[in-house]
Structure formats: structure tokens, C-alpha cells
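Progress against Task 2.4 (sequence-to-structure conversion) is shown through the following example record, which the project officer requested during the mid-term review.
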Amino acid sequence: MPVKYDVIVIGGGHNGLTAAAYLARAGLKTLVLERRHVLGGASVTEEIFPGFKFSVFSYVVSLLRPEIIRDLNLPLHGLTILPLESTLTPLPNGDYLYRGADHYESYRNIARFSPRDADAYEDYGRMMYFMAKAVKYILGIIPPDPASLHPADLNGLLNLARRFLGLEREQFYTLMRLMTMSSADFLQRWFESEPLLGTLSASGVIGTFLGPRSPGSAYVLLHHYMGEIDGVFRSWGFAKGGTGGIASAIASAARSFGAEIRLNSSVSRVLTRNGSATGVVLESGEEFSAKVVVSSLDPQQTFMKLIDPTLLPEEIVEALRLYVYRGSSGKVNLALDAAPKFACWPGQGPHLRGAISISPGVDYIEHAYDEAKYGRFSSRPYIDIVIPSMIDPDMAPPGKHVMSCFVQYAPYELADGDWDQQREAFGDAVINTLSEYIPNLKDILLYRQVLTPLDIERITGLTQGNIFQGELSLSQLFFLRPAPGLAKYRTPVRGYYQCGSAAYPGGGLSGATGRLAALQILRNEFGRRDKT
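C-alpha cells generated for the chain above:
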């Protein structure tokens, strides 16, 4: 007889672990099954080269919901977030833009390029704070369906309308612009200098197949601005021990509530009977039964591989067939023999302990996007850099360093050849671009790990290597994510739920989807509400 659980969670990424922790906290017998040897999904820390530890995929912390940190008491389980307080944008001419924790220093640095931008910077930050605060509400609710006449949906829409109609007129107009404009067009309402425009607009394209001039990228800008650490919006940090430390802390919390977690346990299929999920079977043939099965995997895995699609209504299958992934990001992890020396700012300093953005202007990023549109990786890519060993010395041997490089654009589908053939050329393009700003890079480079969207797909299971489990486009947000009728985590198969980033509110290292899915499961299947 298969072992019986209340809930089985498929996938040990941060959302799956979050869902498991909340469910176990409510007293349910919960099992997490992870196919890899390490927990975290795309939030993992691994020692790729001897002595060098990398946040292999996700690499910074911002979107992790404060209510999850509080509810699960994650600091007690080892979560420590170290601040990333600055952003350096090196420029091809040897100059740089630097924005740090010191407001007046940032003002002076921006004013070197445009006094008008320096004056507008504080007003922009204040407005975005109010936008993030306004949208924060919807990160904690189940999205109401405007096509439904169910009282819960109607009440949800009414509450949502009250929230947004309570905004001041100019704030409401700004929110509408953020939901519809390109990040470049939105930012040009405030700023004029290219280094500032380029760096800020880059937040509107991270993880998406959009350019800074693509409509809809302004929402992605807001999505990343909603990150919150200790009550401060747009705060970025680095988890001590790498992003795997986040997964470890959530897993520790889940275990403390009684959850069981198994590694090297790849689920082959979800077992069903009479239209209801009854358990899972592993590739090894081992079976487990449960009242509820929760998948933290993307829709391709959740609906097209783990269950028989004929169990789904035809319109749902068609909507999922049209769901857009479009992986567009790569990752290059470097092991260095010494600290990098930037041409614009030689030597060590605070600039190496923050984010470093290769985004000298909007045109630079847009040209990188132009190549991707036609199936080529960017020869001069946008690169977002963090040097974790400057913040957490345990990430590398003494005197040596690790450098994390998030790279766009790297389209999943190439016009010429395939990624197995193009991987090293892509890595060379990243190294050559970096070397324009870091003259000593090739001299101190010990090892490199080049991850293409295909590699990300192979290792993590993310379809097309999309870090958000699908595009964060307006057509795939709120009650439309991942498809109409599937935004409330329940699926047409009774007792089968989804809790991955493809569900609302979307991608990022937030855990919000896992939490909301768990609360729905507790309410729908077990008739109780969590104590949050």
C-alpha cells in the first residue's frame, strides 16, 4: 500500500517549499518531492568549482514577501539578508554613474550628467514608493475573476476598485502609465541622461523577451520595484550563503512544522481516479497517495506531462498551448583569482559590494534586444553583475572571488545552430564585453560556467529556461495567469493545485504564489484558514 499523506508537493523550489511550510504549519501531513540532489529549484547554491560557491541561477533577494519571513520565522532558520546598497554603471568612455546609500552622494553623481535628473530623482523615488505601496495589496490576494458573478469575485473586484480609486489623481494616472507604457518612455517623463535612463530601464526587461522600448516593460519595472526588505521598497540584498540559503531556511521551517522532504525523487505522473488527484508515482515506480497534490512546476510540466491533458476542458488546453514562455536570459558564473579592477574605478571600494550594471544607455539595451528578436544572442549584452564574495567572504577562498553575471539577451530558439554549438561563443561575448570595463578580467579568470536557456531548462526543468515560468506580459498577469480559469491555483482536476511562478502573482524570488496557493488549499480542501 502506498504511504498516505494529506498533501504532496511536487518540486522543492522556493514556492513549493513555502506552500509545504504553510500546509505543515496548519497540521497537515505534507511531503515534498524534489527531483534533484539539492533543494531550491532556481534558488540554489552549489560549489561548481573547488572552493567557489555560486548562486547558480537566481542571485539577489528583493521580492521575498515579508509576511513569509515573519510567518515562518525564517531568521530563526538561518536566513540572513546582506544589503546591496549601491549600483555602479560603468561607461565606455571611462566614466561611471554611481548610486549608493548616501542620498547626497547619489544626487551629486547624477547631477554630473544632468542637474535636472538629480532634482527629479527624489520625486521619482517618492512616486514609485507610492506605486509599490498601492500594488503591494494585490500581491496578497487571490485575483478575482471579472467574468464571474460569484459573490467572492464580485467582492474582490469591489475591494480592488476601492483601493485604486483611493489613490490621488496623479498617482492613479501614473499607475495606468506603468501598466501600459514601455520602461524607456515612462522614465523619459522624468529623466534625460542616458546612463540613468539605461540603468533604470533595464529593470523593465529583466527575465523578459522585451526591450526597453517595448510596451508593457514599464510594468516589469514596477514588478521589480515592489521588492521590500525591512519595509523599504526597491531594496536589494544578498542571502548569506547564496540564494540556496533562502531555500534552506524555508525547508528548515517546513521540517520544523513536520513536513517531510525527499531529494532525488522525480515524479513521473500524478495519479488520478474519477477526475480527482489521488497521489503520485515516481520514476523509480514508488507510489504515494494524498488527498491533495500540488505542483510547483510550470504549466507545460503541470498540465501536459504530469497528468493526461484529456482530463482538462478543451479551452484550457488551448489556452495553455498558447501560453508564452520565451526564455531570454543566460547566466555566466566566474571564479576569479583576485578582485576585478574596473577601468572607471580602479581598486577595491563600495562599488564592488553592490550591483554593477552594464547598461550605458537605452540604445545599448535596445540594440542587444534587436539581435535577440532575430534569433541571435546579444554580441554586446546587458549584464547585471554581483560579486557575492565581496559581501559574504565564505563564497570563495581567501583573496579570490566569485562573480555572478545575469545576461540578456539569450533567446531560447536560435536562428543558426543550437545552444550546444553556441554556448562557448555566448560565453566569449560576455567575457569580451566585460573586459571592455574590467581590463584585468582575462588575467584573473580561473573558471567560468556558462548557462544558456537550454541549460537552465535541462537542469531546473523550467520550460525554455524562462526564470519566471512564463512571460510577465499584460496578457499573462493577474486573473489571466497562467490562463483564464486557472488563476486561483485550483485546476479542473479535483484535488490538484498549482503553486509555481506561472501562477499569480508571477515570477521572482517572492514565495507569494506558494503562500497564496497554500491558503487556498486550506480553505477549499480542509475547511480552515491559516493563522496569518
